[in-house]
Amino acid sequence: MAIRVLLVDDQPLLRTGFRMILEAEQDLAVVGEAGDGLQALDQVRALQPDVVLMDIRMPRMDGVEATRQITGPGKDGPAKVLVLTTFDLDEYVVEALRAGASGFLLKDAPANELVQAIRVVAAGEAMLAPSITRRLLDKYADHLPSGEEQVPNTLHTLTDREVEVLKLVARGLSNAEIAADLFVSETTVKTHVGHVLTKLGLRDRVQAAVYAYESGLVRPGAQ
């Protein structure tokens, strides 16, 4: 079945461009459009998309709040949010990731990257490349914990190996890279990642990476 996509952007011309790109792919179907966050919420309820391409800065309700209401805590609907931003460093992107977005993509990314990002997010992965999360968080180093804060109690629910895996996820390693680093199989890594997400009540790898930085488990810029 085709991946159902909802386009959310306050610029009609951009929505038209995205639609032309996506509808050229046999496995993608644009099921609707919205010009602001409030319209997006209505469309998500009515159309049940698999992936929402979400602009950040929009009238009435911005993309952060819309993302929070679509995929935030307590939400178990199928829709996943891929944030679109004009700038490489957008002050709202980290908030969108915290709100439940599965990743972000620049609006001027090549068409093939946009298409692949939608497929990856729809499949349940966090984003195009986990390293993007680390690069973004490193840029916000001044706003994140220094590592000297008290470790959250929830972190103590993890085994030592799960903590290792969480650190590597936060540092941008893929499952294959983590498997090579720890000398285990990719299946084992996937199992550990699943346990980490379940124990910490997180939606995906992006939120796991944000958690690792915010808890001080990983420091921005650390190797």
Automatic annotation (TrEMBL):
InterPro entries (alphabetical): CheY-like_superfamily, NreC/VraR/RcsB-like_REC, Sig_transdc_resp-reg_C-effctor, Sig_transdc_resp-reg_receiver, Tscrpt_reg_LuxR_C, WalR-like
One protein family per Pfam: Response_reg
SMART domains associated with the record: HTH_LUXR, REC
Chain positions with 4-aspartylphosphate modification: D55
PROSITE patterns: HTH_LUXR_1, HTH_LUXR_2, RESPONSE_REGULATORY
Domain Response regulatory: residue ranges: 4-122
Gene3D superfamilies linked: 3.40.50.2300
Keyword Glycoprotein part of the UniProt annotation: no
This protein's UniProt keywords: DNA-binding, Phosphoprotein, Transcription, Transcription regulation
Residue ranges annotated for the HTH luxR-type domain, each copy included: 151-216
Entries under PANTHER family matching the protein: TRANSCRIPTIONAL REGULATORY PROTEIN NARL-RELATED (PTHR43214:SF24), TWO-COMPONENT RESPONSE REGULATOR (PTHR43214)
Protein name: Response regulator
Organism, as annotated: Streptomyces flavidovirens
